[in-house]
Design goal:
The protein is built from 14 helices and no strands. By secondary structure, it is mainly α. The protein has a single domain, classed as Na+/H+ antiporter like fold (Up-down Bundle). The radius of gyration is 19 Å and the shape is globular.
Length: 316
């Protein structure tokens, strides 16, 4: 992976995040604005990135098996990160009683908002498809293992399973099904998917910038003062330790180059944006989730190029 392309992409992302932060100077980042952005990103832009990428590829048996391999690797990596975070937190901060939150924040990343657009930029349509499958693995882990960890009464019910059914997941199933039976939409729809897909990266980065600025001005500041000794743990595990483990495993496995690069990039994403919402749902510490999301996103702008630089220095 060319480090010049990475720095170029990170620079573009950083500028777009700064634009999002600047927007909060002009308008109030309230729930209506938040819902508008998340709806546009999750329900329109991300599905179109997925569909646009799938229909640009010739769906072979090898490509399909590779996609499901990425899904499997995603679940394994996510669970591994959760286990590592939980074990270290229980030993380093047993008195803090935040082991569950640290475990989730250590294992699950922002593979949708940031990961899919970034992989589309760096690795093209095939990378975007694999990134979408990795993000599907994050969703599966989040609403099964993640929800079980946070629940006081351990159970997976119908409402939990319904959370797995979302528009990006439907787009994956729809796109793969039509590609397998070799049916492509009319050119009009392909052009529409391509145009709407181009909104994904800018909207996602604007949202991250607005979220960061809003958290800085409000809750994240208080959370940082309360948990400043513990926040470094999930951030270090998520941004550095887990990617290094993936890099080491990739050195041992004979993975397709695009598969490995996609999995590696997705493994280094900052803590998931849904953390504070998920924690709030299960009466956990949502302020810690918000603070970790904000700070890990800022640090990721530096650790992502660093990790890819390490990748380029290692011969596979």
């Amino acid at each position: 992976m060319a480090i010049g392309i990475v720095f170029h992409s990170i620079a573009l992302i950083t500028i777009m995040i700064m634009i999002g932060a600047f927007i909060t100077k002009q308008i109030e980042f309230n729930n209506d604005i938040r819902n508008m952005f998340t709806t546009l990103i999750v329900n329109i832009a991300m599905p179109c990135i997925i569909l646009s990428s799938i229909f640009k590829l010739d769906m072979t048996n090898e490509l399909l098996s590779n996609a499901f391999l990425v899904l499997f690797l995603s679940i394994i990596i996510n669970i591994l990160g959760i286990i590592i975070g939980g074990l270290i937190a229980s030993r380093v901060y047993p008195q803090l009683d935040r082991t569950r939150e640290i475990a989730i924040l250590s294992g699950l990343g922002n593979t949708g908002f940031i990961g899919i657009p970034l992989c589309a930029i760096l690795l093209g349509p095939e990378g975007a498809l694999y990134a979408a499958m990795f993000d599907a693995g994050v969703d599966i882990t989040l609403w099964t293992v993640g929800s079980l960890i946070l629940q006081k009464e351990k159970k997976v019910n119908l409402n939990t399973l319904k959370s797995l059914i979302n528009i990006p997941m439907i787009a994956i199933v729809f796109g793969l099904t039509f590609s397998i039976i070799q049916i492509k939409p009319y050119v009009f729809f392909l052009d529409l998917f391509n145009l709407l897909a181009s909104l994904g990266a800018p909207l996602a980065m604007f949202y991250i910038g607005m979220l960061l600025m809003n958290l800085y001005k409000a809750r994240a500041v208080n959370s940082l003062a309360t948990y400043k000794k513990a926040l470094w743990l999930p951030i270090t595990i998520k941004l550095i330790l887990v990617p290094l483990i993936v890099l080491s495993i990739g050195n041992l496995l004979s993975l397709d180059n695009t598969i490995f690069q996609t999995v590696f990039v997705q493994s280094m994403m900052p803590s998931l944006t849904l953390a504070s919402i998920l924690f709030s749902k299960f009466s956990s510490d949502d302020e810690m989730g918000a603070a970790t999301t904000a700070i890990s996103t800022i640090f990721a702008m530096f650790t992502i190029p660093l990790m890819i630089l390490i990748l380029n220095m290692i011969s596979f």
